[in-house]
Recover the amino acids of this structure.
């Protein structure tokens, strides 16, 4: 990220607390371990930002042993290079401070000894992520070569990622494209928002599948993959995902389930065979149950 005039003179630790998901204590550890650089150089937490400063934030993981756990996996496809897994709602993708067990990574480590090492030690095999309370299909790499090829394909927007969502209110348009940059919410570091400050390009295509009296079932196709992208974009246009505890506007229907968002389709070119592969998964039972509730109100 490059500093503009708005934050000139601000301490770097304060700036990063407000513009990243990291806590102040985590940022201090990252600074102490040279994981935060300004213009390619190490700094202290008291460093004050100057115009044009380029801040580089590197992954920093404390030395924590991540253990394999015998957790059932819903595997749609597997070979020597990759796994396509259907993640249930409520499962965190990879360990993080304060949550080192019960994740998809713990389950994958029990299932196989072959996972890519491109990311940090707590994210073996993870090429891309979906939110803990979003269900659906994920790509997992079993070696570094496959990981790099798949990650590059995602970056080049060559991987098909389509979601099914039930949103609040009735969307009148049959199709729409939401092109709005997403960045960290300065008032709540755990949330993202549409903003022009320290943000990245974010594009979501939507198509209406079915309308109800007070909700709409839609298909979302990702062109980019920002944190909480679909949830933020839909909230931004006034149609947040039903049952979303963070971005929703209505009372939760089922606090234990999470948002009505499911990664239904995943398509990609296989890194070794070069054949196009595509997978789809049905929405989970709780999604169907809530959807039927809206249908019965018609």
């Amino acid at each position: 990220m490059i500093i503009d005039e708005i934050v000139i003179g601000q301490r770097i630790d304060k700036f990063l607390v407000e513009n990243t998901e990291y806590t102040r204590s985590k940022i201090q550890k990252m600074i102490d371990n040279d994981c935060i650089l300004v213009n390619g150089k190490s700094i202290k937490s008291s460093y004050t930002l100057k115009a044009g400063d380029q801040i580089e934030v590197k992954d920093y993981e404390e030395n924590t042993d991540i253990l394999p756990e015998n957790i059932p996996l819903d595997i749609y496809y597997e070979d020597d290079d990759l796994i396509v897994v259907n993640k249930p709602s409520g499962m965190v993708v990879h360990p993080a401070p304060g949550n080192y067990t019960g994740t998809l990574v713990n389950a994958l480590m029990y299932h196989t000894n072959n996972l890519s090492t491109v990311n940090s030690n707590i994210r073996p095999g993870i090429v891309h992520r979906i939110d803990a309370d979003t269900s659906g299909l994920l790509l997992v790499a079993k070696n570094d070569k496959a990981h790099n090829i798949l990650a590059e394909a995602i970056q080049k927007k060559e991987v098909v990622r389509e979601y099914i969502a039930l949103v609040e209110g009735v969307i009148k348009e049959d199709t729409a494209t939401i092109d709005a940059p997403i960045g960290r919410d300065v008032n709540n570091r755990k949330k993202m928002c549409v903003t022009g400050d320290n943000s990245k390009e974010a594009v979501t295509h939507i198509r209406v599948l079915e309308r109800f009296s007070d909700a709409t079932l839609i298909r979302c196709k990702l062109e980019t993959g920002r944190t909480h992208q679909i949830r933020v974009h839909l909230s931004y246009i006034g149609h947040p995902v039903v049952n979303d505890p963070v971005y929703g506007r209505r009372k939760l229907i089922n606090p234990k389930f999470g948002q009505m968002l499911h990664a239904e389709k995943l398509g990609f070119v296989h890194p070794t065979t070069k054949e196009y592969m595509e997978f789809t998964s049905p929405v989970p039972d709780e999604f169907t149950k809530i959807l039927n509730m809206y249908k019965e109100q018609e």
Notes: The chain has six helices and 15 strands.
